[in-house]
């Protein structure tokens, strides 16, 4: 799976990039073989740290956005929500 990380208006360090790649890579096993690419956008907004996770699967694009106190927490929340969304999407397709 190809993971693209976009950090708006700041430079995401190696530690943050490694954390994101490790977390997002886990999503692939919930829809094995169908996840083509993932895109993570990070932004520092007034409410806190915003993360947007987009997963590209054949015929569909799934998007989750979360705001938290740190980018790590926002990414973790996005990945957890995406796991549930991928599971539901898989169940709908193969019913």
Describe this structure in words.
With 95 residues, the protein is an alpha+beta fold. The protein has one domain: 2-Layer Sandwich (Double Stranded RNA Binding Domain). The chain is built from two helices and four strands, in the order βαβββα. It has a four-stranded mixed β-sheet, with helices on one face. The longest helix has 23 residues, at 71-93. It is globular, with a radius of gyration of 13 Å. 19% of the residues are buried.
Main attributes of the structure:
globular, alpha+beta, 4-stranded mixed sheet, 37% helix, 95 residues, 36% strand, single chain, Double Stranded RNA Binding Domain, 4 strands
CATH-derived architecture: 2-Layer Sandwich
Radius of gyration: 13 Å
Oligomeric category: single chain
The CATH topology is Double Stranded RNA Binding Domain
Concise synopsis of the structure shown:
The chain has helices at residues 14-25, 71-93, and strands at 2-7, 37-45, 48-57, 60-68. The protein is α+β, with helices and mostly antiparallel strands and 95 residues long.
């Amino acid at each position: 799976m190809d993971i693209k990380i976009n950090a708006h208006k700041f430079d995401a360090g190696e530690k943050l990039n490694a954390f994101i790649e490790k977390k997002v890579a886990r999503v692939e096993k919930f829809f094995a073989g169908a996840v083509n690419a993932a895109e993570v956008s990070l932004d520092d907004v007034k409410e806190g740290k915003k993360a947007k996770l987009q997963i590209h699967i054949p015929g569909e694009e799934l998007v989750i956005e979360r705001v938290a106190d740190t980018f790590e927490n926002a990414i973790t929340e996005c990945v957890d929500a995406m796991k549930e969304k991928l599971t539901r999407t898989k169940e709908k397709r193969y019913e």
